[in-house]
Structures are given as C-alpha cells and as structure tokens.
Amino acid sequence: MQTLDSLKQRFGSSDDRIRFEAGEGGLTRVVLKTPRSEGHVYLHGAHVTHFAKAGEKPVLFMSKQSLFKPDKAIRGGVPICFPWFGPRAGHPESPMHGFARTSEWDVESASAEGDRTTLVLSLRSSPETLKLWPHEFAARYTVTVADTLTMALEVANTGQGELNFEEALHTYFTVSNAKDITIEGLAGVDYIDKTDSLAVKTQGGKPMKIAEETDRIYLPTTSANTVRDPGLRRRIVNTKQNSDTTVIWNPWSAKAKAMADFGDDEWLNMVCIETCNVNKHAVTLAAGRSHTMTATVSTQPL
Fold first, then answer.
1. Active-site residue (options: 136, 166, 167, 274)
2. Res 279 pLDDT > 90
3. What's the pTM value of the predicted model, to 2 decimals?
4. Which domains does the chain have, with CATH numbers?
C-alpha cells in the first residue's frame, strides 16, 4: 500500500514542483506546480480537484459540501466514470458511475520538466473489482499541468475475452452564472435528453444555453466545446481526442437541494462538460488491446 510517508520518501518532499500532502479528510493529495500554473490531484479516485493559471480564478468547480471520505466520490473537479456511466444496466446494486472514482489509485511516476509537471496514476483489476465487474483490465491516468490541463485515460484489456466499457471525465467547470454562459461546439448534434424520458433531440444552430435542469448525452461528436462566460470575462475550451460523446449537465435548483454533497445554490456557478464514450459509443477492446481518451482544458480572455 502506498502511504503518504512512503510516497514522500519515494518522490521527495522538498521539490517545489511536486508535493505529496494530506488533503481534505486526510486523503492523499498531490500538488503539481509549474512556473505559471498549479493543479491538485487526489489519489482517491485519481481525482483532479484544482487547476488554475497564476492570477486567474480556478477553472474547476468544487462543491463546498463535498464529502472527502474513502467510500464516497468527491463532488466537483474531474471524477472518472469507469467502467460504466450512470447506473449499471441490469445491476441496480452496483455503484453509480462505476468504481474508479472511489478507488485508491497507485502512483507510477511524477516528474517536472520545463513548463510541464506530470503525474501518472494506475488502477488494475483486483479481487475487489472483479466482484463488481468480472473483467481484467489495467488503467493508466496521466495528468499534465502546464498552461493547459491535460488528462489522458488509457484502458488496456488484460483478460482473454472481449472488453466492453463506458468512460467519462466528468469535468465540472467554474462559471460566474450558469444562466448567462453559452456553450459552443454542439450545433446540429443529436442528443439524448435524460430529463425528458430519454427523448432524442437535435441541438439547434445557436450556441447552447442552460435554462433549466440539463442532462444531455450528445452523440456522436468529437468536437471541442467552448464555454463563453461574460461574468468572468473568459472562455474555457475543452478539446478532446478519442471521445465520441459529450455530456452536458447542470442539476438546477430542485435537484441541487436534494443532493447531500452539493450546496443548494451551487448550481449557479458550475456546468459539467464531460469528455466521454458512453451509450452507443461504449468502447470495445479485443484481448491485449488498449484505448486512450484525452481531454485538454485551456482558458482564454473573452
């Protein structure tokens, strides 16, 4: 088991670019710094909880009500949904969004070079995961902090049979007011509206606006998305590779009040744009094959 003390001994505790420390709830957190930016990653769930460039407001939203507990998912930042998205079909007893976001990931490496600082984490099938999902796999998650935040999730099929899974980087973005932002990059794309009995609809030609509870699976789409935020006077651009679906989510007021780990009014200051392969675009891997999905987040002045 990788303890905080053993990680400090392995990677050193004096490097001002990489620091292992006790974070919220005593969970191990890795602080990654560059000359112009900073990111935080928890080993619990391989969860990125912070990214900001110097002098700018954090890009990622974190709920003040988040439960930093070993058996709970962290609310906000970038949860990893794997190996299924949402409820597991035919298995109501299974944890929502899979087990990756509540698993303790191992540190493979941590390095700093030039204007980039990188952390590589891994999760493999184990007796515990095989009880939940009877498939052998090896996942590697590479988080690179620079002027941009890049997250790459690689999944390898280490079993003998075919592997089918869903995956999502469930990214929460900080916004000034969800009702005032627009989201570009989805014009003309079909989506499944989870707030309307899974009805299939088509996005119009204008940029998307959040005007009510929103839970949409856009498929297929490989395009980048841009959040225009007049209140913060910035654009957030989410670019992706090897992702055929995008999910847009905001719980709005009623659902936010029903969530124990989410503030009643916090929905105003967040929107989720999820880089994913879900639903009809789940990933199928033959034995010995691997797949890497990548999201890159950048900011620009508006």
1. 274
2. yes
3. 0.96
4. 4-301 (2.70.98.10)
